[in-house]
Amino acid sequence: MADIISIETGAEPVRRLSAGRLRLVAFMAIAGFMIAGPVAEQVFGVQSAWLRSWTMFSAIGLGVIDASFEIRQPDGTLVSLDRFAMLGAPRNGKLKWIQNREQLASVIKRLCSAAGQGADIRVRARLATRGGWQIIHTDAENACAV
Question: Nearest 5°: CA angle at 95, between 92 and 99?
Fold first, then answer.
């Protein structure tokens, strides 16, 4: 009869991450980082340049007015009117966003004053609503003559 002697070395083979497991670990790390930013800010109140915050808006832009302006040239053609250049206002100032009808009326009045007596300025304006764009001003008539 033969005796079999087993010798254990105590060393285990080195385990390597397979390509699939490496991709899974990378995906989990990236997903965790993406989730950590909003959770840190919204749950714990932590604000950091390293963690991206995220806030979902359901009503952003509602009530904002999109307006375009044209001025009639002496030869009768309509050309686009740059309200910033005409009023000498910075592009990142108060004229950037027209928030309501009163501001639109104020901008139109200022443009008519800057253009001078007898100016023919046409305005196309629409208001952002939940149901879509609502036309509030068409270019059918001279806005300065009203």
Answer: 115
